[in-house]
Design goal:
Blueprint: H1 4-23, H2 35-68, H3 84-112, E1 120-127, E2 130-135, E3 140-144, H4 150-153, E4 171-174, E5 179-185, E6 190-194, E7 199-203, E8 209-213, E9 219-225, E10 237-243, H5 245-266, H6 272-286, H7 288-291, H8 309-312, H9 315-324, H10 334-337, H11 340-351, H12 364-371
Parallel strand pairs: 1-5, 4-10
Antiparallel strand pairs: 1-2, 2-3, 5-8, 6-7, 6-9, 9-10
Helix pairs in contact: 2-3, 6-11, 11-12
């Protein structure tokens, strides 16, 4: 008896570990947060139970017959001819089952595509590897980029609870209101996906696709790009913050005021020190993934900015490269992504960081001149 105790203890430990592992293992769909997600969830459950019923009615009797009437028990195969009624039945019954499943499925698909009468329309543009959100008719537009620290990605710090699912600026929407998304892409195919919304829509260059959702309750909802869109595919999360309607109205008013203040600031000449300070933050958000915190780049993939002839060369050439990008490479045209002040700031930072000592600064007015 004493010899069995260690074995029993190991079995008990293994059972405990298995239960702990299963506790965090989700095998169902995400909890629905929108009416469409609820319909998808209900449809999934319905089809699952239909499949379970088919298994019980068809396969269990078949397995029982195979075991009970096998040759080793002396059973001989029955001899019989066709049965018209039976053949009609086993044809009609599957047809009725398929029609019964097709009806709610078609109803759900039609509801998913009904983007009419929205309370708010947002244009979503996919970029490698960030999302651009523009609130149509409101004059509010911003980019949403991965906010997970690089130290966590390279395992020099413990990973956070929302590892690779956190952004610097979430998409903010009103709860209880119908939000229409108009999706496209500036480079390759992306896919905007939030499981709890029941929304997964491709963003295709040169095409406009749309979808919609209506969040039932305020909260933060997370998703990802669901299309393999390049080496940064895993670093392109989606975060949606649903606010009560009155709080959303206040947020929208604050955004408009902030953008108006930024526009007034960009019209003025900035001090070189302030430009470099602001440019460092812009660089960490938009440039560090490719060119590195030390400006060394990635050999064979992304060029170094430290000692670069472009960065150390004429100021206008450097500004144009950041503003227009470089066709045929991963260098995006930041003239579309950033405002005049941020472009001026990041160029000024690059020209006066690491071993680069240009000693000059780019003003927002110079960026505005490129837009004309």
């Amino acid at each position: 008896m004493a010899r069995r105790l260690p074995s029993l203890a190991l079995i008990g430990l293994a059972a405990t570990l298995c239960r702990s592992a299963q506790a965090g293992y989700a095998i169902n769909l995400a909890p629905p947060a929108t009416p469409i997600a609820q319909q998808i969830y209900d449809l999934h459950t319905l089809v699952l139970w239909v499949c379970a019923a088919i298994f019980v009615v068809v396969f269990l009797p078949m397995f029982w017959s195979i075991l009970r009437h096998r040759r080793s028990k002396g059973h001989l195969p029955a001899q019989f001819s066709g049965n018209t009624r039976l053949e009609i039945a086993w044809t009609a019954v599957p047809v009725l089952i398929l029609v019964g499943m097709a009806w709610p499925a078609a109803r759900t698909v039609v509801a998913m595509k009904d983007t009419s009468r929205p309370d708010l329309t947002i244009q979503v543009t996919g970029h490698q590897w960030k999302w651009e959100y523009a609130y149509l008719g409101e004059g509010v537009r911003f980019f949403s980029s991965l906010a997970t620290p690089r130290e966590q990605i390279y395992a020099s710090r413990p990973k956070g609870a929302d590892y690779l699912l956190e952004v610097d600026r979430p998409l903010v929407v009103p709860a209880g209101r119908k939000v229409r998304l108009v999706l496209t892409s500036a480079d390759v195919i992306h896919a905007w996906w939030v499981p709890e919304f029941g929304v997964k829509q491709d963003a295709i260059p040169g095409f406009i696709r749309d979808s919609w959702f209506e969040v039932r309750r305020p909260g933060t909802y997370r998703g990802q790009c669901a299309e393999l869109c390049g080496v940064g595919h895993g670093y392109m999360p989606v975060v949606v913050e649903a606010l009560p309607p009155e709080r959303f109205a206040a947020w929208l008013a604050e955004e408009k005021a902030r953008l108006a203040a930024a526009s007034r600031t960009a019209a003025l000449d900035q001090s070189p020190t302030e430009l470099v300070r602001r440019g460092e933050q812009v660089y960490k958000t938009h440039c560090v993934a490719c060119h590195g915190a030390d400006g060394a780049g990635v050999p064979g993939a992304f060029p170094a900015l430290d000692g670069s002839p472009i960065v150390r060369g004429p100021r206008l050439d450097h500004l144009r490269r950041v503003f227009e990008g470089k066709p045929g490479t991963a260098m995006a045209a930041f003239g579309r992504q950033l405002d005049d002040l941020d472009i001026a700031a990041v160029v000024s930072y690059e020209r006066n960081s690491w071993s680069n000592r240009a000693g000059d600064a780019v003003q927002p007015a110079e960026v505005a001149a490129l837009r004309r």
